[in-house]
């Protein structure tokens, strides 16, 4: 369920917020970058034995997109699979063209032996992001990659430019074919435990740097269902950015990064010249999985040795306390003059409160996942198209409530309505045993609080209304509540 193992998070775990006001396109004068990608199957020994994977231009993971904020991306994608396919650009706000988000609520899937051209602009965004398949279980076979957005030369970043830049795509991996996993879920079976963790699609890799220099590590959790803890043996990590938000620059020995999340840290190679472990391990899992890479000092003649440095395993309160230390850097990149996108979110009164509670009911003999007792099913027509062209009968705005109620669960193409620029308070209630990742596709939100038990209006007194981060994906641990304010 976490991170949308079957990509329900792109519809807010079954809830699509439809903006009834469609922004018109604006002719841009920023630079254009053109790409042509071909998606195919391939066979690789990813975790010890050959298996089918999804390649983009023959690569797993797919090509790394390194762009500059406000660049216009024109990407023509050819689907050579035997199934419809879509890519979503995780965390990109789609400010100028929301029709390119790459989820079934917005786009039709690309049929086999067909192509589609994505046109989008990461406007006013700087940071570490990813892309991945949003249909079926394609993400279990690959098809994901890095999307790094750099600042324009005239826009300063709140740290010295690093001497190098490393991207680490970390995620759980399954030896089972993605079609078999899909069939298993379709029959109502529980999603299995992963078989391995990978870093950049491998069980072993290395990164080299010069002693005394500082390097940026861009870390993303591209898995399906598993949170990770990341650490570098003998080195402190200075957190500088999370999903496009510059952070207060605290130092960490290790970081929890949940499914769909990304972070950037600066690491100075200030230790004795030898090799050190880079480690990722699973969190809150029944079986502990580790994967490691090597940080190699270029003047090192000593290989890594000893056991892998240990990290936290089941300590959910530790993870929640760490998440509360992630704060916005209010002195970086001046705020906009209007409340939208500014540091004044705490002064805005929400128009309403929506409480979303997840559950795992059995419906017609099959286990499904639901929000406020409604298990979402995709319509044949993308909801955005149905809304734009006023096509009746595609979805209903009356099947899901804005707060949980008692009763049996049902199946529906459920939609909640919101108006353009509406400021909404969301409460995410996790009633299950597994941690959940909630993602707002094409949007971000302020994570103003975490806590235990049930939410009440008195809880608002504990909100961080000054310097919490804006994020596109946030974790909610078991039996906990997360409160988020959302502006768009």
What does it look like?
This protein is mostly beta strands and 488 residues long. The chain folds into 3 domains: 31-149, Immunoglobulin-like (Sandwich); 164-314, Cupredoxins -  blue copper proteins (Immunoglobulin-like); 345-487, Sandwich (Immunoglobulin-like), CATH 2.60.40. The chain has helices at 178-186, 316-324, 383-388, and strands spanning 16-19, 32-44, 51-56, 65-68, 72-79, 87-90, 114-120, 127-133, 145-150, 164-173, 196-199, 206-209, 214-221, 227-232, 237-242, 245-246, 251-252, 254-257, 262-268, 275-283, 290-297, 352-359, 362-363, 366-367, 370-371, 374-376, 410-412, 415-418, 423-430, 436-439, 445-452, 470-471, 473-476, 480-487. Mean pLDDT is 88; it is low at 1-26 and 335-341.
Question: How would the blueprint of this fold be written?
Answer:
Layout: E1 16-19, E2 32-44, E3 51-56, E4 65-68, E5 72-79, E6 87-90, E7 114-120, E8 127-133, E9 145-150, E10 164-173, H1 178-186, E11 196-199, E12 206-209, E13 214-221, E14 227-232, E15 237-242, E16 245-246, E17 251-252, E18 254-257, E19 262-268, E20 275-283, E21 290-297, H2 316-324, E22 352-359, E23 362-363, E24 366-367, E25 370-371, E26 374-376, H3 383-388, E27 410-412, E28 415-418, E29 423-430, E30 436-439, E31 445-452, E32 470-471, E33 473-476, E34 480-487
Parallel strand pairs: 1-28, 2-5, 4-9, 10-13, 12-21, 22-29, 26-27
Antiparallel strand pairs: 2-3, 5-7, 6-8, 8-9, 10-11, 13-19, 14-18, 14-20, 15-16, 15-17, 15-19, 20-21, 22-25, 23-24, 29-34, 30-33, 31-32, 31-34
Organism: Aquilegia coerulea
Keywords: Signal
Signal peptide: 1-28
């Amino acid at each position: 369920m976490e991170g949308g193992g079957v990509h329900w998070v792109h519809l807010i775990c079954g809830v699509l917020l439809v903006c009834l006001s469609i922004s018109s396109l604006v002719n841009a004068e920023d630079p254009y970058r053109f790409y042509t990608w071909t998606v195919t199957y391939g066979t690789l020994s990813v975790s010890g034995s050959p298996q089918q994977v999804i390649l983009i231009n023959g690569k797993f993971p797919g090509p790394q997109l390194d762009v500059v904020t406000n660049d216009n991306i024109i990407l023509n994608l050819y689907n050579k699979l035997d199934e419809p396919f879509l890519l979503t650009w995780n965390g990109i706000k789609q400010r100028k063209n929301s029709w390119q988000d790459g989820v079934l609520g917005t786009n039709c899937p690309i049929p086999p032996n067909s192509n589609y051209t994505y046109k989008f602009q990461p406007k006013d965004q700087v940071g570490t992001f990813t892309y991945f398949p949003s249909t079926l279980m394609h993400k279990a076979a690959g098809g994901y990659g890095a999307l790094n957005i750099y600042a324009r030369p005239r826009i300063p970043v709140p740290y010295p430019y690093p001497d190098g830049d490393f991207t680490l795509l970390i995620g759980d991996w399954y030896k089972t074919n993605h079609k078999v996993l899909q069939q298993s879920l379709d029959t109502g079976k529980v999603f299995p435990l992963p078989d391995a963790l990978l870093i950049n699609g491998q069980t072993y890799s290395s990164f080299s740097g010069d002693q005394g220099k500082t390097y940026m590590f861009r870390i993303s959790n591209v898995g399906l269902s598993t949170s990770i803890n990341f650490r570098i043996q003998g080195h402190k990590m200075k957190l500088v950015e999370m999903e496009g938000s510059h952070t207060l620059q605290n130092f960490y020995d290790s970081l929890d990064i949940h499914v769909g999340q990304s972070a950037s840290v600066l690491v100075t190679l200030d230790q004795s010249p030898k090799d050190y472990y880079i480690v990722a391990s699973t969190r809150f899992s029944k079986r502990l999985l580790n994967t490691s890479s090597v940080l190699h000092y270029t003047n090192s003649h000593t290989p890594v040795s000893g056991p892998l440095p240990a990290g936290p395993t089941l300590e959910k309160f530790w993870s929640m306390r760490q998440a509360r230390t992630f704060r916005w850097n209010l002195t970086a990149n001046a705020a906009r003059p209007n409340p939208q996108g500014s540091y004044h979110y705490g002064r805005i009164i929400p128009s309403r409160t929506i409480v979303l509670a997840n559950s795992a009911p059995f419906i017609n003999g099959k286990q499904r996942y639901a929000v406020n007792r409604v298990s979402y099913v995709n319509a044949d027509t993308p909801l955005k198209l149905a809304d734009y062209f006023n096509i009746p009968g595609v979805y209903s705005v009356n099947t899901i409530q804005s707060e949980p109620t008692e009763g049996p669960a049902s199946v529906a193409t459920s939609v909640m309505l919101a108006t353009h620029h509406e400021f909404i308070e969301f409460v995410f209630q996790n009633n299950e045993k597994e941690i959940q990742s909630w993602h707002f596709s094409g949007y971000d939100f302020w994570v103003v609080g975490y806590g235990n038990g049930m939410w009440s209006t008195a809880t608002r007194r504990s909100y961080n209304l000054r310097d919490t981060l804006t994020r596109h994906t946030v974790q909610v641990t078991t039996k906990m509540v997360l409160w988020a304010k959302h502006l768009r």
